[in-house]
Amino acid sequence: MGYQALYRVWRPQQFIDVVGQEHVTKTLQNALIQQKVSHAYLFSGPRGTGKTSAAKILSKAVNCERAPVSEPCNECAACRGITDGSIPDVIEIDAASNNGVEEIRDIRDKVKYAPNAVTYKVYIIDEVHMLSQGAFNALLKTLEEPPKHVIFILATTEPHKIPLTIISRCQRFDFKRIQPQDIVGRMSQIIEETGVKCSEQALHIIARAAEGGMRDALSLLDQAISFSEDEVSVEDALTVTGSVSQAFLGRLARAIYEKQVAEALQVLDELLALGKDTSRFIEDMIFFYRDMLLYQAAPGLGDSFERVLIDPQFKELAGLISQEQIYINIENFNKTQQEMKWTNHPRIFLEVALVKLCSQDRGSGSQVPDGQVQDLLGKIGELERQLQSIREQGVPAAENVKTAPAKAQRINKKAYRAPAGKITQILRQATKQDLQTVKSRWGEVLEQLSHQNQKSLAALLNEAEPVAASSSAFVLKFKYDIHCQMAMENDRFIETMAMILQQITGHRLEMAGVPESQWQQLREDFLATQNQDSTETDRKQDEDPFIAEARKLVGDELLEIKE
Length: 563
Prior knowledge:
Layout: H1 6-9, H2 22-33, E1 40-44, H3 51-63, H4 77-84, E2 90-94, H5 101-110, E3 121-126, H6 133-144, E4 150-156, H7 164-167, E5 171-174, H8 180-194, E6 197-198, H9 200-209, H10 214-227, E7 231-232, H11 234-241, H12 246-257, H13 261-273, H14 278-297, H15 312-320, H16 323-340, H17 346-359, H18 370-392, H19 403-413, H20 420-429, H21 432-440, H22 442-451, H23 455-459, E8 464-469, E9 473-478, H24 481-488, H25 491-505, E10 510-515, H26 516-542, H27 545-558
Parallel strand pairs: 1-4, 1-5, 2-3, 3-4, 6-7, 9-10
Antiparallel strand pairs: 8-9
Helix pairs in contact: 3-4, 5-6, 8-9, 9-10, 9-11, 10-11, 12-13, 12-14, 12-15, 13-17, 14-16, 16-17, 22-25
């Protein structure tokens, strides 16, 4: 094919072309000038931010015939050969498809050979986090002490998956998301040199939809150019990115402010009929209110706005809606966005959210209808009159509410209480060996529950662990009281656990559950009792036999011992 995508044609060939990563490019350029190039680099960051491009530029700069230079000349044979891939000494490896030990061993065996055409042999390993553990181990020693003519450049979008032993052997550079204004600047340069007509606002829409990735921005721009006729308009950019125009967002925000449910639902229907995605729409609404909040707080921060351009309609709306109402709207839309991720019918959640926002009280966010508010106010007034009448009759107000503590006690009694006596008995007979036996087979217990289609029962044990065991019983600690209560009041669960433990350990074990909030106190009480018993036993063992016999005859109350 003769046509090449924009992001391939305009791939950075010098450090100055790498947009938004000055903290990386400046450091690398200084190292090149001072000839302090490291043997291993780790480039990490989101997709499309210039990691692999920077690695290629660095490989050209260290091998440029005019070195030391801060920028590759792109004119000498070495620079041109590395750019077109004809020089075999710069090796790009995709770790996603070459992640085995054998591929890394092949690299380890070949690094000792000197480069053929240039000064340094450079290995660029892309998506390095995809290597297996064995491959990382094979790379470890070579990465730490490679030959002087070898440079490793590792690139990844997920640095947390790379072993620390690898990271500590590299100079790490974190590429950040590119700011929308930097993306717009780069796209403006490209369309100016290519002769394409494009609206300034359309570029801003594309830059914001790219979410900090230059490659994504250029792909969207390429798509918008193909979609448009003579000039990339705002509507073209909105269609390609799936974003919602500011006019629709303003209409919906005004409908919510004026409590016009029908108008809000009508706007939603029109947007969905245009093929807009519900997730993108609700994200646009959140950013619209966010921009409104920033405009109210600091009107001068125009560069920080994500979804709006300041026009008379937006200014008017920002003057009407209070900050408190903006907080409520953002919170409701954010909650709806989370709920939409786990449903097959996101439109329903969105419609419900709009109805709620249009029904709530403008000042406080209360969703109680006015009729119910009046009824509540009337009941409060009646109660106040009755209370005043009781006081006039000389009856203290406290006597009228003395049943409240009893009610609270009844509620508290429903809370689960661990069987202290049973647990104490188990603790007296418990041994470390018995506990280790149960703990070592606990994984098998959970697996058996899952295999027996008892997933609901297994869920109760997600954050439970055995904490004490004897030859006939064990104590199971639950993180939450409600899980402990549900488990211990379920006879089927207790019987199932006993059968599984009998199959695994060879003998039946009774189970006593205890919530984490009660376990510490029960344990401390048991240890205190044990210490007291041992002290009493030691005292009796050291006591004179004559005094011990006298104690038996008259008791401790009548016995007086003098030295």
